[in-house]
Known about the structure:
YceI family protein; Lipid/polyisoprenoid-bd_YceI; TTHA0802/YceI-like_sf; 8-stranded antiparallel beta barrel; two-stranded antiparallel ribbon
Amino acid sequence: MKHSIKFPAFFILVIISGLFSTQITYSQNFTLSNSNSVLEVHGTSSLHDWHLDTEKQSGKLVISNTEDLTIESLSVSIEAESLKSGKSSMDNNTYEALKTDDYKTMDYKLTSVSKVDKLTDTSFKVTVVGDMTIAGVTKSLTMIVSVKIDGSKVSLEGEKSFKMTDFGVDPPKALLGTIKTGDEIKIIFKSVFNKN
């Protein structure tokens, strides 16, 4: 008789525990806001420094734990011909170097999170590893990203320097090769994701 009384109580406890843990690990989906996000490409040349602004990008972010920040997945896609410098000749040289006739987008996909430092209840410093694909070539990149959670909005900020030639991209040239672009570029971004 004692066993029949204890069993239902234990069973209810298991169900409650299951519901509680389900709430903790519930995945939240976010979509990148193109109008609120910024991605700039900065570089040098034999004449002057330059930068490109991204006009069209999209992305998805899935977080399963906002308290300690568990990122399940992250992907960002940039339309290569939406990179604009304000000078059509430079833009055309950039598109040629990026082989945009064949490769329409530059893509980033998270592969792992190696470290999460909680700074405040809503902000984190995160070391991420992901695959970056440019002009059809994929390389693994490690970055430190600042993450801020603000209600239904998540912001990711960071920067990363790398060489164009790592992705098989020849640095653009202008004026019959008299102006040469430096090989190293820096990407600076603030990506804003809104909850679905």
